[in-house]
């Protein structure tokens, strides 16, 4: 695979994982707004963004496959991100206490997406360079 394709896939990975992070924060806002009386529109926004986050996580995994082909340790966090994003949605309709895993796994998704972004930023050569005092 060409290094140009891998670099492009790393940029796609950075963008999709970054959007997952933004989406999780938006979901937290909308579900809190719904809980405190904002109405069905807030719940609909939470659900809609949730489906987008799930799709973005799967796209991040596909981008990681291209970006890091055969470097399974670098692909694993993106795979976990996609897998947990898909599983997490299923807990939303579970019974009372089990449904709590829906919210808990959202935190796991946030942490995984952050890890993917950090690694990708480093691999793209972005961020701090040289003197650490800046």
Layout of helices and strands, plus pairs?
Elements: H1 3-35, H2 40-67, H3 72-90, H4 100-123
Helix pairs in contact: 1-2, 1-4, 2-3, 3-4
Number of domains: 1
Biggest sheet, open or closed, and with what strands and sense?
Answer: none
Number of helices: 4
Shape: elongated
- Uncertain regions: pLDDT < 50 for 5+ in a row? none
Number of strands: 0
Q: By helix and strand content, what is the structural category?
A: mainly alpha
User: Quick check: average pLDDT?
Assistant: 94
How is this structure best described in words?
The chain has helices at residues 3-35, 40-67, 72-90, 100-123. It is built from four helices and no strands. It has one domain. The chain has 134 residues and is mainly alpha-helical. The longest helix is centred in the N-terminal third of the chain and has 33 residues, at 3-35.
Labels describing this entry:
elongated, 0% strand, mainly alpha, 4 helices, 134 residues, 78% helix
Can you give me a brief rundown of this structure?
The chain is mostly helical.
């Amino acid at each position: 695979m060409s290094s140009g394709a891998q670099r492009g896939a790393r940029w796609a990975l950075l963008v999709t994982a970054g959007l997952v992070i933004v989406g999780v924060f938006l979901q937290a806002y909308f579900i809190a707004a719904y809980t405190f009386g904002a109405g069905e529109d807030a719940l609909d926004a939470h659900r809609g963004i949730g489906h987008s986050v799930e799709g973005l996580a799967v796209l991040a995994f596909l981008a990681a496959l291209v970006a890091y082909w055969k470097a399974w340790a670098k692909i694993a966090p993106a795979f976990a991100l996609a897998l947990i994003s898909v599983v997490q949605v299923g807990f939303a309709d579970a019974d009372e206490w089990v449904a709590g895993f829906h919210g808990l796994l959202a935190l796991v998704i946030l942490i995984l997406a952050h890890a993917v972004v950090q690694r990708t930023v480093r691999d793209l050569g972005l961020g701090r360079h040289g003197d650490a005092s800046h």
